[in-house]
Amino acid sequence: MLDTATTTFTSFDTSEYVYECSCGELYKMAVSALSCRKCRNYCVFGYCTHVIDTTTGEVVAGTEPTLEEYEEARVLAEAKWAEEKAEYQLRLALDRQEGALYEAYMAEQAAEAAVVAANLTMDNLYVIQDELSGY
Ligand SMILES: [Zn+2]
After folding, report:
1. Which has more confidence, 2 or 128?
2. How many A from CA of 39 to the centre of ligand 1?
3. Which residues have CB under 8 Å from 45's CB, separation 6+?
């Protein structure tokens, strides 16, 4: 019976692609799998940790992380991805010049500008005071 959920149909022969990297991409050579660039974005470690020969199920390059190492990296990666998503949402709101993020950012910018203006005013008053005092 054909398992359509796990069987990939392609226009070329994939039987030589037996080396699987950390993110699940298949390669012809283990060294290519170990330097997989997709792992930078899709693997929680940010790089390919190990390569599995799918014909034997054995790790042929790198070191398979322990469950603890994986969980630790997953927490860090999810925090980083959430931060990147928030930054993206802010940029999107800024580009559109709308939304709560845009309003909050503009209010933050206005508050910073008010502090700079107040400091500049105070500096100018000190300069005037020094001139009037004859310094
Ligand atoms: Zn990969």
Report:
1. 128
2. 4
3. 22, 39, 65, 73, 77
Residue 81 Cα to ligand 1 middle (Å): 17
The pLDDT value given to residue 107: 93
Give residue 2 CA to ligand 1 midpoint distance, Å.
27
pLDDT digits (tens, 9 = 90+) for 46-60: 999 999 999 998 999
Return the residue matching tokens 């709101």. 93
- Tell me, what's the pLDDT at 84? 93
CA distances from 52 to 20, 36, 37, 46, 133 (A): 5, 13, 16, 18, 80
Tokens 């790089």 belong to which residue? Answer: 47
**Rounded mean pLDDT, 82-105:** 87
Q: How far is the CA of 63 from the centre of ligand 1 (A)?
A: 14
Of 65, 36, 67, 30, the C-alpha closest to 51 is: 30
Q: What is the pLDDT of residue 4?
A: 60
Domain borders along the chain are 19-65, 68-132
